[in-house]
Structures are given as C-alpha cells and as structure tokens.
Design brief:
It is a single chain. With 289 residues, this protein is α/β, with parallel strands linked by helices. It is built from eleven helices and 13 strands.
C-alpha cells in the first residue's frame, strides 16, 4: 500500500525551534553554508511533499520570502503566526490547512544525517501500516528525563508497536531507551487529542500526551530510523553537526581537517577532546592522527 503525504508542518515556535542563545529564529542558523530550515525543507522535498506549513510564534514579515528562495516551483509554502510558543497550540493552528489527511511534522532543530532521509523512512513505514509513525532513536538511559520515551513491542524491520509514550521520565522509571525525535507522520485524528490536552499538558509533553491518548483508539508505530540525529537546539549538538558536516563539505573539508589536526590542544590526549565533540570516535582519531 502506497500512501502519499502531501503536507508537512514545520514548528518554528518555542521548543519546536532551535533555542541557542541569541537566536531570533534558530532554524535560520547555518550548518556550514545552509540554514537548518533548508536541511529540513530538503528532507521534505525528498519525500515529495508539495505543501509546507511553517508555524511561528509572531509575525515574521520576511520569512515567506526567505523560504520561497529555498523551494522549487510548484511547492506551496504558508506561514502561520500562532501567537504562542506552545507546540500544541502551534500544531492546532495548522489544523484547517491540514484537513482530513495524514501529514508530516519536521522539527528543524533535529538535524538527521542519513543515507535515506529520515522522513522517507517514516513514510515507508506509514505505507506499510497506514497509521501514525514517530521517529525514535536509542539514547543513554541517564538522558531519559530530557526526552519522550516509548514502551513497545518490536515488530521487526526497525518497527515498534507503541504501547505507551512517557515524557521526561526519570532514568530508573523510563520504560525503554527509545526516545522520540522531531520526525512524525500523524493521522488527522491527532488534532482531537491535541484539543483535549491543550490546556492540561503544555509544552512538548502535550504532543506526546496526545499521541499516548490516541493509542486508545488506533495503532501508533515507532520507526527506529537509520542515521545520526544532531540536537541542534543545544550548543554541543550544533557544534557536533557543524564539525561533522564540515569534514565532508567539498569546499572546505581538506582545509578544515588540517585545521583540526593542527589545533594547539592543551590537554595531553587531544583525541579524547575530539571524541567528545564528534559522535564517531574513529573519525576523531583519524583527524587527530
């Protein structure tokens, strides 16, 4: 069964956006020579999305013009001012534009580096199961209190039948080490659950609470995507992405690699310092060597 997803929502308000210090709209911060938002848009284009909805907190007069420069002809872009930074309210603002069809949600602050784009992986699973799909990754248990963690049963092929989703559990209470990231394919029934929880579960917990509520009436499948997610809403994640993408950018990779090799490290074990920045230890050792 092939199910076409035409629409994608990009939350650019509050915790849906990048929250680095000093950033007016963090999703416009660059990774090398492209803003984070452009990486998210390119991921949607790779999935053949033709209608993109960008939800901001306040009016951004120049944003639509900026976005239009990133889009090919024939792709529709709309900007909605939610008047709030609450993710639940921001998503509800898009309800009339979504209508009665399934749609994607892409949070630009979660930059996913993958051979097959993360959204395409979710859409392939949506085509198989025909229900809501959430992207998940394995995290260290001690970080569970900063994530929404799922409980579920493996179905094979990186698919997990979601039985519950818990926001910010203490490490010892976390039902697993599989945490949701900023990639979703949602059925329109999610809006009912968002409305119910709008006033009782503010913040990111509201979306995950709505997904948990939807489990009473429909299946939700988690997709353990293949790739690396960089949390560019944190200083470390933003730095990790910049270094990793810089190491393979054809215009700067050789000079950047030489720069890293020649840094005057004070610490006696420079490879350890680089390993703390890069997610791939082998790459870090190769640079320092």
């Amino acid at each position: 069964m092939q199910i076409k997803i035409n629409k994608a929502v990009f939350p650019l308000a509050g915790t849906g956006d990048v929250a680095l210090p000093g950033a007016r709209m963090g999703s416009l911060l660059p990774i090398i020579d492209k803003p984070l938002l452009q990486y998210a848009i390119e991921e949607a284009l790779a999935a053949a999305v033709t209608d993109m909805i960008f939800v901001v907190e306040d009016e951004e007069p120049n944003l639509l013009a900026t976005i239009s420069q990133m889009l090919p002809a024939g792709v529709k872009a709309r900007v909605i001012a939610a008047g709030t930074c609450e993710p639940v309210a921001a998503l509800l603002c898009a309800e009339k534009l979504i209508g009665s069809e399934a749609f994607a949600v892409i949070c630009p602050g979660d930059l996913v580096d993958a051979e097959t784009p993360a959204l395409n992986q979710l859409l392939a699973m949506h085509a198989s199961y025909g229900t809501s799909i959430i992207g998940v990754e394995t995290i260290a248990r001690e970080y569970s209190d900063a994530h929404a963690v799922i409980a579920g049963q493996s179905l094979g092929e990186r698919a997990i039948e979601v039985q519950d989703i818990v926001s910010n559990p203490a490490p010892m209470q976390a039902p697993s080490t599989l945490a949701a990231i900023g990639r979703y394919v949602l059925t329109p029934s999610i809006f009912h659950h968002l409305r119910v929880l709008k006033d009782t579960a503010p913040g990111p917990a509201g979306l995950h609470g709505a997904i948990a509520s939807s489990l009473k009436t429909e299946r939700v499948i988690a997709c353990q995507f293949e790739g690396i997610r960089y949390d560019c809403g944190t200083t470390l994640g933003y730095l990790q992405a910049t270094v990793q993408f810089g190491l393979r950018h054809p215009g700067v990779c050789n000079e950047f690699r030489a720069f890293l090799r020649n840094l005057p490290f004070i610490h006696p074990a420079p490879t350890l310092q680089l390993a703390a920045v890069l997610p791939q230890a082998n790459e870090a050792i190769a640079i320092a060597g």
